[in-house]
Write a structure and sequence with these properties.
single chain; 571 residues; alpha+beta; Purple Acid Phosphatase, chain A, domain 2; six-stranded mixed β-sheet; 19% helix
Length: 571
């Protein structure tokens, strides 16, 4: 047994003995598939929070900052974003002048003492519709400032705004991460998707905040502003059902402002890294798309060598995160693929052992909703991610929870990533409950067409579902699925062990035990990037069996030692 494996195993055993709770590890997989059906005592959805709710209303005056948010830039720098002024909506709107107010951040390591000051940029955007009866929108002034020279694992106090007016925010605080290193990790990483702005969304954020994350991954579909007409009113679960005569997929942009205010108490102190989903497409005049997403968020695209906020990467301690875009070109001949290949090539696994990727629509999904919708993307990119030994993949889009066994190309594979779907943030479209393997629930090959990109639906060529579009039972690569709203927490413990916990919303009202929990274990000795493409061949299976046998021997030795130790204490 190698030294890292032995160390990790001792850590896992010690943790189990101290806590008294057995949490499975991926070393014990693949697991027999488990399905937890929707609890009929719960509501499948809830109404959106109204715009006159105190959490969504503007509560500052004049040019004072609001909607303050953080995002990582580099290990020693941070993006600070905020909004000033008043947005406009109506038949005729006039854009504000972004040069009319400065973009400043004051920051330092002592409360009330700001030793550094930085200036940044400001901009506005418009959402315009050339159709009679539809309202246009132009945003308030959106500011982005990059503050640098930050020391690792240090608390910083900051204010933002324009000191000449004067219109500076109240003081806020954040803590920087450790520098990239194989033994330094963020404390807790929250993962949420398809959040929206409903009563369920509020429960999700309240629950997540109680878990005290140091970083948030938001895997697409943020505000669901496009579930409204431009004139506002009431949001709906199905836009095309409620508004079949709408000339375009309208969007009520003030929901973005309400969402920014709703999230500010959390994301003004905890950096949030977002990636686009289909609800961020928001088509408008002249074929313009994604305007809100591209304007409102400052992300480390340039810092990571990307030319677009649609895909980028960043480090947080010993974890390298790659955020990919499913609604831009992902073909192997395109710019995103070339960038991804180069980014993967530059990753040093001795510095950032963990490699985590995220994008909005899942590749592996056993729910009827969005079944095989992004099969084209999987076929283009999966081999590359597998070759470089990606450890975990997070996605949303499907409004339920699902964790996979390690899988590659629809085949159980000890070196494949752990794919996890967390599109259960609480949005207005309700939780998904139907599974494609249930009688009468298999979609047709004409269903689940992506808004952007090709269609590559296929019948399985091997295994129990050979020749069929859907399985007749829960697929073997689906380890655990449950129809419920919630969020996930990833705690990276060392270079080979990470604890994944999925928390259901309803558990906030009773004993707060995770709905799903597992140690995700890296095995760099048998699944290094140089060997991953070998797949599940015989030599790998032999090596894996040998490691498992050694682990079992060590486990028995430690259990015996622990019993002897307890007996000595009794004496």
């Amino acid at each position: 047994m190698t030294q890292p494996t032995l160390f990790s195993f001792i850590f896992f055993l010690t943790n189990m003995l101290v806590s008294g709770k057995h949490i499975p590890t991926t070393l014990q997989g693949p697991f027999h598939p488990i399905t937890i059906h929707f609890d009929p005592s719960l509501r499948r959805g809830s109404d959106d929070i109204p715009m006159d709710d105190p959490r969504l209303k503007k509560n500052v005056t004049s040019m004072f900052p609001e909607q303050i948010a953080l995002a990582l830039s580099t290990p020693t720098s941070m993006w600070v974003s905020w909004v000033t002024g008043d947005a406009q909506i109506g038949p005729n709107v006039t854009a504000l002048d972004p040069t009319s107010v400065a973009s400043e951040v004051w920051y330092g390591k002592e409360s009330g003492k700001y030793s550094s000051k930085k200036r940044g940029n400001a901009t506005v955007y418009s959402q315009l519709y050339p159709f009679e009866g539809l309202f246009n929108y132009t945003s308030a002034i959106i500011h982005h400032v990059r503050i640098d020279g930050l020391e690792p694992e240090t608390k910083y106090y900051y204010r933002c705004g324009d000191s000449s007016l004067p219109a500076m925010s109240e003081e806020h605080v954040f803590e920087t991460f450790p520098l990239p290193a194989q033994n330094s990790y963020p404390r807790r990483i929250a993962v949420i998707g398809d959040l929206g702005l409903t009563r369920n969304s509020s429960t999700t954020i309240d629950h997540l905040s109680k878990n005290d994350p140091s970083l948030i991954l938001m895997v697409g579909d943020l505000t669901y502003a496009n579930q409204y007409l431009t004139t506002g009113g009431k949001g709906v679960p199905c836009f095309s059902c409620a508004f079949p005569d709408a000339p375009i997929r309208e969007t009520y942009q003030p929901r973005w402002d309400g969402w920014g205010r709703f999230m500010e108490p959390l994301v003004s102190r905890v950096p949030m890294m977002v990636i686009e989903g289909n609800h961020e497409i928001e088509p408008q005049a002249a074929g313009i798309t994604f305007k809100s997403y591209l304007t409102r968020f400052a992300l480390p695209a340039k810092e990571s060598g990307s030319s677009s906020n649609f895909y980028y990467s960043f480090d947080a301690g010993g974890v390298h995160f790659i955020m990919l875009g499913a609604y831009v070109d992902y073909n192997s001949t395109g710019a995103q693929y070339a960038w991804l290949k180069e980014d993967l090539r530059k990753v040093d696994r001795t510095v950032t052992p963990w490699l985590v990727t995220a994008w909005h629509p899942p590749w592996y999904n056993s729910y009827s909703s969005h079944y095989q919708e992004f099969e084209c993307m999987r076929q283009e990119m999966e081999q590359l991610l597998y070759r470089y030994g990606v450890d975990i993949v997070f996605s949303g889009h499907v409004h339920a929870y699902e964790r996979m066994n390690r899988v590659y190309n629809y085949t159980l594979d000890a070196c494949g990533p752990i794919y996890i779907t967390v599109g259960d943030g609480g949005n207005i479209e309700k939780v998904d409950v139907d599974h494609a393997d249930e009688p009468g629930k298999c979609p047709s090959q004409g269903d689940n067409m992506p808004e952007i990109g090709g269609v590559c639906h296929l019948n399985f060529s091997s295994g129990p579902a050979k020749g069929n579009f859907c399985w007749d039972r829960q697929p073997e690569w689906s380890a655990y699925r449950e129809s419920s709203f919630g969020h996930g927490i990833l705690e990276v413990l060392n270079s080979t062990y990470a604890l994944w916990s999925w928390h259901r919303n309803q558990d906030t009202y009773k004993e707060d035990s995770p709905g799903d929990q597992i140690y995700i274990v890296r095995q760099p000795d048998i699944c290094s990037p140089s060997t991953s493409l070998k797949g599940n061949n015989e030599s790998e299976q032999v090596k894996g069996a040998a490691v498992s046998a050694k682990c079992l021997c060590v486990l028995l030795l430690f259990m015996v030692a622990f019993v002897i130790y307890q007996l000595l204490l009794c004496d």
